[in-house]
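Q: What structure does this chain adopt?
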Amino acid sequence: MTNASGCLERYKGVVDHWERFWEASHAAEPVAFRIRRGVIHRRRLIERLATSDFTVEPIREIDGYFRVLSGMGSVAQTIEHWLGFFHIQQAVMGLPPLALEPQPGERVLDLCAAPGGKTSHISELMAEDGPLVAVDPKEKRIRGLLGNLYRLGCMNVVVVAGDGRQLPPGALFDRVLVDAPCSGEGNYRRKKGRLPDRSAGFVAYVTKLQEDLLRTAIRVTRPGGLIVYSTCTYAPEENEAVLDRVRRDCPVEIEPIPLSAPHSPGLGSWQGRRFHPEVERAWRVYPHHLDSGGLFMARLRRLDSTAGASAATAVDDAWSSIPKAFPGEDPDRAAERIASAEQELAHWFGFTPEILGDLGWLVRGRHIWAHTAKVWPIDHWSQQPHAGSRRVISVGLRAFRAGPGSFETPTSHFLTRWGSQISDSRRFALDRETLRQLLEHGEVAAGSADRGPVALSWEGIVLGRGVVGARGLRHELGRPHAERLQALLAPP
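A:
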């Protein structure tokens, strides 16, 4: 690691308003967050944060993003964050999903998904309607991805472990995000000047990786579809040079980005090398533009071609409805378990047939997943070479696990995500002190409440699963989940 000041100096003749860029790069970066669409109204969240003495302001250039102005401690250490009402993320990172403009019902691919900030943002922009396939090769990073998707309650994401460069042809997407691995110079500010050295070997490796990922994205995008390529670095070798090579021999054009935010255009040349004129349609976003980090992004339109057009005629053949039984599961047994789960939701929690009719179900092992993805390319991918290198990790939200007998136990994440649909009679309302006692001791008196499963509720918000038994009310949040909540409720 290095203080990396030299990595900025090389752009002195490139960056507009150099003094402002330098000053912003060496100033503390404000904390920013994105409100979780469809779960809480922004006014209500701001009011709740204000009760914890946090003052925030909207970032006018990026819809749904807010900047923390003041507050005691970290906004991440709040129950609102625990509940998935918002996601802490650099403001500048909201631009690529907005440039992608995903629409409900489309088939969307996030080729480098972990840790999930942009994935969850895309899911929200899609109104969680239609498949969002999130691919990442590293199991450790996927754990972080799943943690964010579950906390935020994203229902339409199909998470796949695998190398994005090896996705097979056939299943075409409407839109693809390539948020490529890079040297991370745009994180200079957040990392307080500590960045890895950009050795010649690293540059050769990472630019090859970036180009391969972008070429794969183009190959799996339908004619007329969109690709957004982004990095968090300033290096032209990883940005304009990659775009230039791809633009010259792939069926794409680089088009203007239809957003209103301060930025600089892509470079027309670097160190004596002229780039394709369309490269200047890309965006360079520097720290002084949004008081955030640094970003490069470009939007590419997939053009028609003989190969692309013929492939497009078979695109629907490569997509199939998500089955109720994961490959290898007994379909009859899966149908029985799903029927039981739906009965439990209707009987105990008041879910109506209209609500349940919008959800897809997938049985895998001891769990039942609820999703709104509808279709996937997994059946097609499993028939292609290197199928074993692509592994489905999750589909939507883990909703139930097998309980004793034929009972299916709903998960806390599922009940929290669908808390507004739970009947009042099955909500067990807790005040702050009773909730703290419940978390500390695992059980409290239940009064005259009817026995059976309940949704634990605090300040009108469903926290998760509980059960009323002979000895009282018991929480079933899961140890790590409960310990985290208990720490947030502890007196200062």
